[in-house]
Design goal:
The structure is a homodimer.
Chain A (H helix, E strand, L loop, with lengths): L16 H7 L3 H10 L5 E2 L3 E2 L4 H14 L2 E6 L2 E6 L1 H7 L3 H12 L6 E2 L7
Antiparallel strand pairs in A: 1-4, 2-5, 3-4
Helix pairs in contact in A: 2-5
Chain A binds a DNA duplex (30 and 30 nucleotides) through α3.
DNA sequence: TTCGATGTTCGTGGAATGTCGAACAAGTTA
DNA sequence: TAACTTGTTCGACATTCCACGAACATCGAA
């Protein structure tokens, strides 16, 4: 459903290192994080990943449950953004380290944005 | 066997972010890394973890295969140490971020060293 | 050579994970 | 109201992962 009205977003204090590390040990999810790394909020539909819709939904949920992203609902559409500040507060340096490692490795390069910048 | 003559230790260039992240998404393994964080080489026997010997061997292999630790064999005994420099070269900031997050969270606190510092 | 110590490997469960397609739900639009 | 759009949820499945005990291999000591 486009529902999940208020998917649970853990407070920074509730985030666990193990869960965050687990969430970031999948190429698709790292790719999603990379796409969101510019800080802009993105609509589900903009995200391009080589997996089925349900699978993408699953990955986005894993990221959200770990506290890595925040999901907002607007009408029928959902938007995601990186919880950069919260992450930096809770686990200083971790996100940046992962992001720079990922970009030097092209991890998650299979994930991208839709052609038409029908974005934000 | 105390053998594993030359356990494969990946070169820094062969390490992958995904594998490293996966290796560090288990409490036991993070605990082991924390124990090794002081840079000292430790003997298998010194390591205390709430798992069977074979399971500990498994975790140490996952860490080694990911390039996080280095294993050395001396006679019948094996020694492990953190590949801090290699890790920092390959994934700058990652190890430190994980270590500081782990210590603030007490992740892997169940892992420790043997009582008698019969150590190195 | 015969033990004992130290780790690895094997076989086996049980749990978690990734992926898919199909079914469903809620909001939009015609 | 009847479609259509957008995501979520539900099995189903294959794979991977963690954990254990048992068996095995190697080194060192008796």
């Amino acid at each position: 459903m486009v529902v999940m009205r208020q998917a649970r977003h853990p407070d920074p204090g509730e985030m666990t290192l193990i869960e965050v590390m687990g969430a970031l040990s999948d190429p698709i999810r790292v790719g999603l994080v990379r796409v969101l790394a510019d800080g802009r909020e993105r609509g589900w539909g903009e995200l391009r990943a080589p997996v089925a819709k349900s699978t993408l939904s699953h990955h986005l949920r894993v990221l959200r449950d770990a506290g890595i992203t925040r999901t907002r609902q607007e009408g029928t559409r959902c938007f995601v953004e990186l919880r950069r500040d919260d992450l930096n507060t809770r686990f200083p340096g971790l996100l940046n380290a992962v992001l720079s490692a990922a970009s030097s490795d092209a991890v998650g390069a299979q994930v991208g944005l839709a052609d038409g910048p029908s974005t934000a």
